[in-house]
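Marked as duplicate of an earlier ticket. Keeping the data here for the record.
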Amino acid sequence: MPAILETRGLNKHFGGLNAIDGVDFVVDEGELRCLIGPNGAGKSTLFKLILGTYPPSSGKIYFKGADITGTLPFRRVAQGISIKFQVPGVFLDLPVEQNLLIALQQRVTGEQRAAEVERLLELLNLQDARRQRAGQLSHGQQQWLEIGMATAIAPSLLLLDEPTAGMSPEETFKTGELVKRLNDQGMTVVVIEHDMTFVRQIARKVTVLHFGKVFVEGFLEEVVNNEEVVRIYLGKD
């Protein structure tokens, strides 16, 4: 499959800190990739560079073969990149249904919008909570709602930053099944995650960042059985 996302020699410096250091990162269309690494490895910074929240210090970013290095974030979203950040950003005082309608308003109208709301509620298993205020949902449900809002624009590339943070094991498993379902529907997904049980549930290929560099990359079993990965990521000697 062709690459949907590629970074070449990507760097981001904050003063004397190299948060991202010469990263070459390629994600093929239709892939489900996990991005792992110790705290401070540069994972969230890489996402912010891809979305355009941070400008790179140097290097290039390509989306669907086009150079988007200087493209504004809202234009990247319009081109098909969507993100769900670690902390839920839903409208807490509005009903679940209204949150989804807001996310859908730029893409669909009328009866099609109503049908999309129903599809998303079913996908997220939030049909019974449709009229609840988002602030009344459990933490896990709020995370699912934001994933639904991020997918409402029908992105080609979905970035998920620690989508299971703060979840119970049962919620974490359900989130994994949701992510796999989105990928099965044709969406390319890149997930930052620390929970290795979750990574094992969904991962087909894994990239490990360490000190802002790609430390190792490959299929799941190759990566988790790599002695150096075990040492730097799992904290074992």
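See parent ticket for discussion. The chain has a mean pLDDT of 93.
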